[in-house]
Amino acid sequence: MDILAALKQEEAKLQKQLTGVRGAIVALGGARTVAATGPGNRAKKTRAKRVVSAALRARLSKMAKERWAGIKAGKQKAKKAA
Fold it and tell me: What pLDDT digit, counting tens, does each position of 37-61 carry?
């Protein structure tokens, strides 16, 4: 049983060190996301902001409007046919 207790103690020590290293990486900005591996690790996930140009935003909006217009037109046809 001494071996099992020693291994659990070593695991706890390593988990604490790992949490410290991950915290340092996040603090230095070296990682965008940190995966939580254990129940005690409540690392906050971060995501880099995406920059979209005005032209692309307008094009995406136009495409979405066209797509929804097609969907609505298909529903209108289905209602008239029924």
Answer: 555 556 667 888 889 999 999 999 9
Structure tokens at 70: 């097609």
What radius of gyration do the chain's Cα atoms show? Answer: 26
Place of tokens 């929804």: 68
- CA distances from residue 82 to 16, 27, 72, 77 in whole angstroms, order as listed: 66, 61, 16, 9
Q: Where are the alpha helices (DSSP H) in the chain?
A: 2-27, 54-81
Question: Rounded distance, CA 4 to CA 2, Å?
Answer: 5
The answer to whether the CB of 43 falls within 8 A of the CB of 26 is yes
Q: Which of 25-29, 38-42, 58-62, 77-81 has the lowest mean pLDDT?
A: 38-42
Question: Cα-Cα-Cα-Cα dihedral of 37, 39, 44, 50, to 10°?
Answer: 50
| Type of residue at 3 | I
